[in-house]
Structure formats: C-alpha cells, structure tokens
Design brief:
Length: 493
Amino acid sequence: FHRAVRSVDNLPGYRVLFSQFGLPTFVFGRWRGISPGTNHFFEDKHSTFGEWDMNTVISALPSPLVTLTIADADTIKEITSSRARFPKPVYQYEVLSFFGRNIVASEGEEWKKYRKISAPAFSDRNNKLVWEETVRIMDSLFADLWKDKDVISLDHCVEITLPIALFVIGVAGFGRRISWRDDEVVPAGHTMSFKESLHIASSDVFMKVFLPNAAMKLTGRTRRVQTAFAELEEYMLKMIHERHSSEKVERHDLLSSLLDANNDDFSDQRLLDSELVGNIFIFLLAGHETTAHTLSFTFGFLALYQDEQEKLYQHIKSVLSDGRMPTYEDMPLLTYSMAVFYETLRLFPPVVNIPKYNPEDTVLTVGNQYGEKRTVPVPKNTWIAINTPGLHYNPRYWENPEEFKPSRFLKEYNKDAFIPFSAGARACLGRKFFETEGIAVLTMMVLNYKITVKEEPQFAGETFEQTKARIFQTKNALTLTPIRVPLTFTRRT
Ligand code: HEM
C-alpha cells in the first residue's frame, strides 16, 4: 500500500480499504477510511483538490489500486488527445456488450471500425429529423396529454423527460414513432409492444448490467426486464431484416443510416447483425438517461431562477417574434437556450468520471492556481479518472463556480475546462443530437409553460438554498441521476 502511495509521488487524496468501483463501495457507501462511496466525484466537486489539480484514490483491498483523478484542463487535454497513450479501460464496459460488440465498449481497431461506420449517421439530416420530431412530440404532449389542464404538477420531472427522450430516440434512432397515448398493439409473435420493451430496457438497464443471468430469473420484475431485452432484440433484428429486404427509401434515422453505410461497405469491415444491434442499442443507452436527466436539471434551474427563465422566455420570443413554431433553422439563433444547457451541464455533468489508463509507464504535468507546474510519475496501468465535476467547479477556470450563471457561456470561456461530452477522438458522438433535441424541448416548453417548483406544505418554510439542495439531490447510477425534482408547469396565456 505504501509503495502504491509513493509510486505517484505521495499525491494526497482518499486512502481507503475498498475502491470506488467494486461491490463494497455500494455496500458501505461513503465511509471514512473504508470506501469513498459511489458518488464522491460529484459530492466532492473541486473541494478535495489541494494545492494541485490532481489527487488520488488509493485502496488497499483486494490489492493496492491507485486512481489518479484530474481536474486540470491542460492535463486532461493531454490525455484526451492521445488515445494510444491513454486508452479507455474497456474491460470496465464489457457488461454493456450483451447485445453485441459496440462503439462504447471497444478500443483500438475495433473501435475505429465502429466509429467510422457510426459517425456519418449523426448527420445534419438526422439532426433536422431530431428537431422536427421533438417539436411534434412536445406539441402532442401539450395537445394530447396535458390538453384539459392549465396547471400540471409533477412529483418528479423525469416523469416527462424520460418519455420525451425515449420517444425522440425511438423515431430519430430506430425510425419508429411512439405516441403519448397507450395505444400500441402487441404484434403477433410478441408479448410486449416495442414501446414497452424499449421503455423497460432503457429504465431498468442497470439490472441487466449488474445482475448475473441466473439472478434475472428470480423475481417478477427481473423476469419482465429479461423479457423486455429479448423482445427488444427481436424487434431490432426484425427492423434490420425488413430494411435489408424492402426497397431503399430515403430515411435519416440512425439505424437506417447505419444499415446503408454497412451495405455500401464492400470491405471485410462490414458489421454482423449482432454488432448492428449492439451499436444501435448503445446509442439508446448513451443518449436516453443523459438527455432526460439534463432536461430535468435544466427545468429545475429555471424553476429556481425565475429571472433566468424570464430572460430565456424573452429571448425565445424575440427569435420567434411572429409567433410561429420554431424550426431547425432557428436553432443557431437560440443562443440563450444553449447557454442555459451548457451552464446546467457544467454544474451537473451526467458523466462524472471519464476513465482512461496508461499501458506504459509515463509522466503527467499538472498545474496549480499560482501558475506553477509539477511533473508526476504515472506507473503503467494506473487508473486515470478525468474528474468532470472537479474540472467544472475549478475556480481557476470558473468565477464563482457554484453559481448558476448561463451568461458566462455567451462570453469567451476556456473550452478545455468544459467537457461534459468528453473530448478528443472519443468525444460523444451524440452531442449535436442532444443539443438539437434539448433546444427544441426547451423552446417549446418555455414558450408555452411557466415552470415553478411544486408547492408542498411540508416544505413551506424553506429558504431558497434549502429548496435548491432538496430538488438537486443526486445519486450516481449509470449516470448522474436526480433523485426527485418536483415541478409545476403553468400554461402561459
Ligand atoms: C446530455 C447528453 C449527453 C452527454 C452529457 C453525453 C456524454 C458522453 C460522454 C462523456 C462520452 C464519453 C464516455 C467515455 O469515454 O467513457 C460519450 C460517448 C458517447 N455518446 Fe454521449 N452524451 C450525451 C448524449 C448522447 C446521445 C443523445 C447519444 C446518441 C443518440 C450519445 C452517443 C454517444 C456515443 C455513441 C458515445 C461513444 C463514442 C465513442 O466512444 O467513440 N450521447 N457521451
């Protein structure tokens, strides 16, 4: 253990029995000297960094493990721009390959193959589809689900943001429209509708990821999750075969584009059906929760900061001054909406730890607030955690980092100190997909409804800071997850 501490120049940090990744940390939670807990990256933010923007988590059992966590923008840039020196530890992602090999859980030549065939699917035509379908989904939310009500109170905002994100990925990812109404018929040969299987598979994926197959047979709920995954696989394979055998129609959903690119590839790089299913499912997994949770945090901020909501409302109205529906072409003009999202993503980055490792001995240089530099040895196979909250709350880059201030993104800012989508060759492929969807949702919502924190008698005497702390409680599941954001939406007249 002491050798491990010395190997990284005695950098300070957590000294614990168990690491932040294994089962014990789930059992013990955050416990001094025992384990750092599953959400320590977000709970600590920048507070655990001492003189240098690099610290450590060193655990003793089962054998000493060193994790370097980094909140220095230059050091992070050095890591993300050198994929060969700092690859992704894909063994941590093996559990995500249950449908087939895929872009998130691969490295090296295999990852290059998936990235080459997937990247063109995230095209401008796809973004336009995302925009148009999102506007349609929001319109239908107001017209069909909320039609008779002027005031809608939700116990937890994800009640609408999870379905919105699911419906958008359903149509712009898989080419299947899903409606708010409960009217989907179960086709012959299936026991669940596409909507239901997609819904269960996306919301209960953690069971599939963390439980062994035998355990999935134990309870009614886990059996249902197992069935949803089997059904979804059937649906995806059927879609692939239908699109192979039907005449080519111009479609811009991700699945169709992936199939087109694959069919046009006459090399030995063509993907197997299992790889197609693996990749298309991983788009759903990578994009669903991240989007839904970010939308919830954003609505939460707007509810708390009424002045910011008003500024946003006025800005949207100035862009759509003739009272028309927003179009994809309006998106670049909706700069305040983007600033609100970026500020939310800075304060609540869905991915709090972007893991890397170094296959060879190396060194990293890290800085401090006085502009000094220090070089730290990094023995081979050290776990490296790009600490997103540490970077996003680092006062070296952000003035009053705890404050919600969207306007900071309307000025020059250090782009290397803002990495919710990671950076470099392995940066998020769905960034524009999310931004398009998010801005369309925000524009439609703020234009039509005023958002406030739901009034509940038991919280009547709270201060602003107490309400903020209450509605912004989080846990770290697959991504940073809001625990309960209770909001009220009141129709604007
Ligand atoms: C708020 C929304 C989102 C955030 C914050 C986000 C964040 C990230 C991050 C941090 C990574 C790198 C993960 C790692 O290296 O371990 C990533 C990768 C990825 N994301 Fe996103 N993401 C978002 C939305 C989406 C959406 C909507 C999609 C697809 C529809 C998507 C698809 C992907 C894919 C395919 C990768 C893997 C890229 C590669 O390894 O080459 N993401 N995302």
